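In keeping with the milestone schedule agreed at the kick-off meeting, the structural modelling team has produced records for the first pair of proteins. Each record is given below as a sequence line and a C-alpha cell line. The laboratory manager (R.T.) confirmed that both were archived under the project's standard naming scheme.
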Amino acid sequence: MNYFAVTYRYPEGDENIARVRPTHREFLRGLLDEGVLVGSGPYEGGDALILIRLAEGSTVADAEALMDRDPYALEGVLPGREIKAWTPVLNIFD
C-alpha cells in the first residue's frame, strides 16, 4: 500500500467549511468503508489531517484525483490543501 498525508488548511469557525462539513464527512465515511481512509480529524485551532492508503504504485496525482472528489474541493471552500506521499516506518496500519 502507498500512504498519503493530506492537510486541509482552513480557519476554525469558517462558515463555508461548516456548511459543507456534513457531506465532507459522508465522503470520508465512504473512504473508510472502502478501506482507503486510515484516519482523519481537525487540529486544534483549524486545519485538518487526513491519512489515506491507496494501491501499491499509486502516486500523489492519484491521491489528488481522489481528494478532488471531496465536497470541500468540489464546493471550492478550502483555502489550501497539501498532499504528500508518506512512508510509515513504525505503524499499526497493516
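The second protein of the pair:
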Amino acid sequence: MRREKPKFKQIIDAAVVVIAEHGYHQAQVSKIAKQAGVADGTIYLYFKNKEDILISLFEEKMGSFIEKIEQETEGISSSLEKLYVLVKTHFSVFAADPHMAVVTQLELRQSNKELRHRINEVLKGYLRLIDRIIVEGMEKGEFRRDLDIRLTRQMIFGTLDETVTTWVMNEQKYDLAALADPVYELLIKGCAAGR
C-alpha cells in the first residue's frame, strides 16, 4: 500500500541520487529527505531505516525493470529475439539512469551479508526471466539442447552485469546502449543451435 503513494516513489528516486553521489554509508536519511523535499520524519512513515530504503529501492527498480522486459518481449515468439530484447533493454535502462547504474553496480555490493541475501532474493525474479528464455529457446530448438541452464543464465547475467559495471567504473564515457548488438552476438554464438 505504501508503494502506491507518491511520496514513496519520491523518496526512492531521491535515495537513488543520494546513494549514487555519496555512497550508501554516507547517504544519511536526512540527505535523502532533503533530496526528496520531505521532512526527515516523513521517511520513517514509509521505511524502517536506511537498509529498508536500499532494499525497497532495489525491489521497486528491479520490479519495473522486469516488467519492462516482459512488456517488450510480449508477443515475440522467437527466443533469440527475446534474448536480444533483454540485452538491449538491460543496457538502455541503465544508460538512461546512470545514478541507478552506480547504485546497483557498486553500492549494492558493499552491503552486509543479511542485506546481500535480501538483495539476492529480489534478483531471483530477473534470473527466472532469463531462465524462461533459455528453456523456451531449448524447447523450440533455437538454443542448443545440451545447454546447462544454470551456467547459461550465469553467463548471460554475468556478461550483462560486468559490462554495465565496467561502464560505471569508466565514468560512463561511452555509449552503453550501443554495446547491445556486439554483446548479443557473443552470447548467441554460445547459446544458439547450429552456430
